[in-house]
Amino acid sequence: MWIIRWVLWVLLLLFVIYFGAENSSQMVRIKFANWQTPELQLWVVMFFSFAVGMIVWLLGSIFKILQLKTEIRKANKANTNLKKELDKLRNITIDEDLAESNVESEGDNL
Questions:
Q1: Residue 41: its pLDDT value, please?
Q2: CB under 8 Å to 42, separation ≥6 — which residues?
């Protein structure tokens, strides 16, 4: 499986290099509100757009992972509490049955 992943990454990298080489002559200028960039090559703008998107995705993923870990921790704690309660309930019936059988056996001995 790791070989397929590496082959896909290499193909993606080759595509990006090819795309950058083909569009190296095209220049673009980004305007946002009152801010304006100097003329940059198209592939540079696309690379930075991709990098910013990856960083936003990474931050979102980190937040989601932390949220899911918190839910898992809460579920494990609830599960542990329920197991303790179940063990107590199981032990209560055994203790009650033993106490009743001891009372009956004492009554038989008299």
A1: 85
A2: 23, 26, 27, 28
Please give the mean pLDDT across all residues of the chain.
83
Residues 53, 47: Cα–Cα separation, whole Å? 10
Distance CA 85, CA 73 (A): 18
Backbone dihedral angles phi then psi of residue 25, each to the nearest 5 degrees: -90, -15
Taking the C-alpha atoms of residue 50 and residue 15, their distance in angstroms, rounded to an integer, is 14
Nearest one of 75, 71, 47 to 63, comparing CA atoms: 71
Burial class (CB in 10 A: 0-12, 13-18, 19+), 42: middle
pTM: 0.55
